């Protein structure tokens, strides 16, 4: 996304744009990527030799739940401020690389399908959101058995 410096009026310049998912550098091969173009609304203001851009980004990410490994789609919304020094004789500033870096930095480290996700049983591999398994029960009864034996000693 380019901003022509002469377009920035004293009161600022409002911008509406979209960013193609591939501009983020993330693709379906990554553990997390954008499924649709990102919406950008921004306000650029010039302060002497710097352009400050208040940026609001909205997108939809696709990832894998880090507990149960199911596919997850989630809204991703972020506000940040970028500043660009104006090079001598520059006619425009190019936001693409800064946007890309800011997006990557602000992606969640892990995604859950929901706060209540029970995950996958580490013993039998069952998705505990869909089914119950008896592994934990067995584990419990084993523990009780051991405790009982201890008590009898
Ligand atoms: Zn999950
Ligand atoms: Zn299990």
Polypeptide structure, described:
Helix content is about 20%, strand content about 35%. The protein has helices at about 95-105, 135-150, and strands at about 1-5, 15-20, 30-35, 40-45, 50-65, 70-85, 90-95. The protein is elongated, with a radius of gyration of 25 Å. Bound molecules: zinc ion (2 copies). One zinc ion (ZN) binds near residues 65, 68, 70 and 117.
Query: How many domains is the backbone divided into?
Result: 2
Order of helices and strands: EEEEEEEHH
Q: Mind telling me the C-alpha Rg?
A: 25 Å
Average pLDDT for all residues: 91
Task: Flag low-confidence runs.
Answer: none
Beta-sheet strand percentage? 35-45%
Total number of strands: 7
- State the end-to-end CA separation: 75 Å
Task: Itemize the secondary structure elements and their pairings.
Layout: E1 2-4, E2 13-19, E3 32-34, E4 38-47, E5 50-64, E6 71-85, E7 92-94, H1 96-105, H2 135-152
Antiparallel strand pairs: 1-7, 2-4, 3-5, 4-5, 5-6
One zinc ion (ZN) is lined by residues 65, 67-68, 70, 112-113, 117.
């Amino acid at each position: 996304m380019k901003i022509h410096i002469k377009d920035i009026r004293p009161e600022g310049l409002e911008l509406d744009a979209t960013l193609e998912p591939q501009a983020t550098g993330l693709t379906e091969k990554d553990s997390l990527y954008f499924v649709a173009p990102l919406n950008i609304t921004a306000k650029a203001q010039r302060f002497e030799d710097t352009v400050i851009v208040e940026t609001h980004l909205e997108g939809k990410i696709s990832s894998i739940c880090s507990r149960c490994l199911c596919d997850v789609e989630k809204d991703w919304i972020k506000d940040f401020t970028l500043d660009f020094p104006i090079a001598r004789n520059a006619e425009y500033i190019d936001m693409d690389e800064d946007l890309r870096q800011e997006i990557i930095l602000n992606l969640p480290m892990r995604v859950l399908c929901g706060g209540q996700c029970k995950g996958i049983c580490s013993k039998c591999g069952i998705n505990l959101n869909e089914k119950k398994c008896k592994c934990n029960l067995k584990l419990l009864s084993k523990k009780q058995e051991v405790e009982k034996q201890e008590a009898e000693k």
